[in-house]
Design goal:
Bound molecules: ligand AOF, zinc ion
CATH architecture of the largest domain: 3-Layer(aba) Sandwich
Number of helices: 10
Largest sheet: 9 strands, mixed
Structural class: alpha/beta
Distance between the termini: 20 Å
CATH topology of the largest domain: Dihydrofolate Reductase, subunit A
Strand content: 15-25%
């Protein structure tokens, strides 16, 4: 590990402290380091609309700590150059560079936001600050895969998720008019599902699932906010007293969009950077056919045989799960292959 990588790792650790609260902004961390290697300031973007990581970091520095010293500012994302909810960070760094001895800025990756896109680095260089970009670039982009997806593809990062029985059903036959789907998950995997909900800005289901299961789609077993609930309901079938319209979270209904391409484009325009699709089978199959998705999380209860009901999407699972949690097998697929996700 190089010295630059060491401090960038610290930025990444700090950035993660903003998880669940900064969306649709990226998670960003920053540290100011003296020539002798001492970190004299740290900060991270803590919540959407709040100060950026660099602002928090420079605020953290005591003037006496950098008197007469050369310092380097590490930040996991290129400092911004635009007036958003806060003033440009690149300008702030330049204006305080003399006082804080900032000779060099190391950025993990460039900001794909078209309002920034390299301009932050240009401002710093024009002011005579040396800039190194692309340290631990992959990790920095990975951390903000959802933010990058929206900025670069103009659509949210799509995660598909379902649980199935050993014989391949996501729900049993509801011959007795049961109101709730059969339980496949356990207490531990339920918690992981809620973590996934907290990591996504929106959670989406089709009207069939809303009518059949009447879910609330809240994040009760993990910290963070309730995601925005999105209902695909072309025929306007779901009554407004259903749980998906409860007061605890925002709900968006897509009535007009005819297919998944149109639905994701609309969510992108709304500024939603990530969506977790929780069913049902018809919708999941349609999305799989379009190929417009990024991640798949499948949970299998190896002891449960339902003998009929709603078939799970036909995806062939690898011999090895990524984890066994409470006896259930977890599979995760991304970038065209199964394996452990970060
Ligand atoms: C940084 N440092 O910590 C973050 C940055 O609406 P605003 O003012 O919060 O600006 C949001 C945009 O700023 C966001 O889309 C991304 O381009 C950048 N985020 N930039 O220099 C930070 N969170
Ligand atoms: Zn900024």
């Amino acid at each position: 590990m190089t010295t630059d990588e060491k401090y960038m790792r610290r930025c990444l650790d700090l950035a993660r402290l903003g998880a669940y609260y900064v969306a649709p902004n990226p998670m960003v961390g920053a540290v100011l380091v003296r020539a002798d290697g001492l970190i004299i300031g740290e900060g991270f973007h803590q919540h959407y609309g709040g100060p950026h990581a660099e602002v928090e970091c420079l605020r953290d520095v005591e003037a006496s700590a950098c008197a007469g010293q050369n310092t380097t500012l590490y930040v996991s994302l290129e400092p911004c150059s635009h007036w958003g909810k806060t003033p440009p960070c690149a300008d702030l760094i330049v204006s305080r560079s003399r006082e804080l001895g900032i000779r060099r800025v190391v950025a993990g990756c460039t900001d794909p936001n078209p309002q920034v896109a390299g301009r932050g680095i240009e401002i710093l260089r024009a002011a005579g600050i040396e800039v190194t970009a692309g340290v631990l670039e992959q990790e920095c982009r990975e951390l903000n895969k959802r933010f990058f997806c929206l900025q670069e593809k103009k659509r949210p990062y799509v995660t598909l998720k379902w649980a199935q029985s050993a014989d391949g059903y996501i729900d049993g036959p509801r011959t007795n008019g049961e109101k709730k789907p059969v339980v496949i998950s356990n207490d531990l995997t339920k918690q992981l599902v809620h973590k996934l909900r907290a990591e996504n800005m929106a959670i989406l289901i089709g009207s069939g699932t809303a009518l059949m299961d009447n879910p609330r789609l809240m994040t009760t077993h993990w910290s963070g906010r309730n995601p925005i609930r999105v209902l695909l309901d072309r025929r306007g079938r779901v009554p407004h007293d259903y749980n998906i319209f409860s007061k605890e979270a925002q709900t968006i209904v897509l009535y007009e969009e005819q297919n998944w391409q149109e639905a994701v484009a609309r969510l992108g325009e709304t500024g939603i950077h990530s969506v977790l699709v929780e069913g049902g089978a018809t919708l999941l199959n349609h999305i799989l056919q379009t190929g417009i998705w990024d991640e798949m999380h499948v949970e299998v209860n190896p002891h449960q045989k339902l003998g009929g009901g709603t078939s799970a999407p036909a995806v062939s699972l690898p011999p090895e799960p990524v984890a066994v949690v409470g006896g259930n097998l977890l599979y995760e697929r991304r970038n065209g292959r199964f394996g452990g996700l970060v």
